[in-house]
């Protein structure tokens, strides 16, 4: 009898359950939605509404006729882009600069974060972090100016030292072979320190008991790094890599524009500089919109493909 009574008391009929309607639950969380609203409005106004403008890539857009009244031309501008005699040169330059950044710049914040994670003196660690964060707040105009002061042929500090040592001045800024390496070096100096923030945050979440257990098992620093630290931040690395691949055709207009000159155009002319010349200076709005849409399509393919591969490796993708 007692068992039956217990079962009866634990039995909850569906009518006894009061399920709160969905809209009432949302009203209970109004403060959370209020916090979310600024971000939603930002993406709606500055990201999604401007997407309406991509329609002009399929038109002969005229500012006087507007989007709705401009003539529809279909894929005319895309065909023109692919038939452009320097299309493959621009495409190659963009891809190569992105690959340089992917191979040399992308791992730099990871390596720096791993090194900082091994520092045990907090005051020294904080000092180094402050120093390497500072270049991020310097504009590319200043970075380009510093580069010209250091590497310029006339009066450049590095060339002055070379000439004082009996050597001949080197044309760092006007030699095509130096251009891509120079761009990547500038990016590493300016942004690598700032990029460590995400990885240091991921490293801070690693359970210290794992290291203690590894020490008991006789694992040294390298073993701990390989078997504990890197697996702990592997998902973060994959996610950032996917996002990076999505912007593989975006190599930074301001950076390249400031460093570009007539002698390195063959290796430095990219889609951003081409769009600047054709769109802003030449007024070919529909054509350059088609170029931007082509870049976005390539980025979408790479993101979807990289996300699929990431899941194949057992990691969580972006979506």
From TrEMBL:
Cross-referenced PROSITE patterns: ABC_TM1 (PS50928)
Give UniProt keywords alphabetically.
Answer: Membrane, Transmembrane, Transmembrane helix, Transport
Record-annotated ABC transmembrane type-1 domain positions: 91-306
Per the UniProt record, one Pfam family is BPD_transp_1
Report the transmembrane regions from the record: 32-58, 95-119, 131-151, 192-213, 287-309
As for subcellular location, the record says: Cell membrane; Membrane
Topology relative to the lipid bilayer, per the entry, is:
Multi-pass membrane protein
Q: What InterPro entries does the entry give?
A: MetI-like, MetI-like_sf
Q: Which family does it belong to?
A: Belongs to the binding-protein-dependent transport system permease family.
List, alphabetically, the PANTHER family matched: POLYGALACTURONAN_RHAMNOGALACTURONAN TRANSPORT SYSTEM PERMEASE PROTEIN YTEP, PROTEIN LPLB
Query: What's the protein called, per UniProt?
Result: Multiple-sugar transport system permease YteP
Instruction: Identify the species of origin.
Output: Paenibacillus konkukensis
In the UniProt record, the gene name given for this protein reads yteP_70
């Amino acid at each position: 009898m007692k068992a039956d009574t217990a079962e009866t008391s634990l039995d909850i009929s569906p009518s006894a359950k009061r399920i709160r309607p969905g809209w009432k639950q949302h009203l209970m969380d109004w403060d959370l939605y209020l916090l979310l609203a600024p971000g939603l409005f930002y993406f709606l106004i500055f990201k999604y509404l401007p997407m309406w403008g991509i329609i002009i890539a399929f038109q002969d857009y005229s500012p006087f006729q507007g989007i709705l009244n401009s003539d529809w031309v279909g894929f005319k501008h895309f065909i023109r882009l692919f038939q452009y005699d320097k299309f493959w040169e621009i495409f190659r330059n963009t891809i190569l600069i992105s690959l340089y950044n992917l191979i040399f710049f992308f791992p730099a914040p990871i390596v720096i974060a791993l090194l900082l994670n091994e520092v045990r003196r907090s005051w020294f660690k904080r000092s180094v972090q402050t120093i390497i964060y500072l270049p991020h707040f310097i504009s590319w105009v200043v970075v380009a100016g510093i580069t010209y002061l250091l590497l310029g042929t006339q009066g450049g500090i590095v060339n002055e030292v070379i000439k004082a040592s009996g050597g001949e001045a080197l044309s760092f800024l006007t030699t095509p072979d130096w251009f891509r390496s120079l761009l990547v070096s500038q990016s590493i100096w300016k942004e690598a320190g700032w990029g460590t923030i995400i990885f240091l945050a991921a490293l801070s979440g690693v359970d210290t008991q794992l290291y203690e257990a590894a020490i008991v098992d006789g694992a040294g620093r390298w073993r701990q790094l390989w078997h504990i630290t890197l697996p702990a931040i592997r998902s973060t690395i994959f996610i950032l890599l996917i996002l990076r691949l999505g912007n593989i055709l975006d190599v930074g207009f301001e950076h390249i524009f400031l460093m570009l000159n007539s002698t390195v155009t063959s290796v430095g002319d990219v889609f951003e500089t081409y769009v600047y010349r054709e769109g802003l200076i030449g007024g070919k709005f529909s054509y350059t919109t088609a170029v931007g849409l082509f870049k976005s399509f390539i980025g979408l393919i790479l993101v979807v493909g990289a996300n699929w591969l990431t899941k194949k490796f057992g990691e969580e993708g972006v979506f």
